[in-house]
Amino acid sequence: MANPKNTADLAELKEKLADSSSVVLTEYRGLTVSQLQELRNNLGFDVDYSVAKNTLFKIAANEAGNEVQNDMHTR
User: Which of these, 49, 57, 59, 69, has the minimum number of CB atoms within 10 Å of its CB?
Assistant: First the structure.
């Protein structure tokens, strides 16, 4: 049985992808909290920056009708 939190996260990701005109994936590991805050501030007011599990993102993208390249790195 699917984890309820993952199910809710998946639904939220699918909605965000459906409403987005573009998506940019980043690697955030190694950044400090202040660096992440600076990144979010520099992105602008109309940009949503969030962290998601790679597997959930791939499922959401595929279910939303977007192609996911196989070169997405997972660790």
Answer: 69
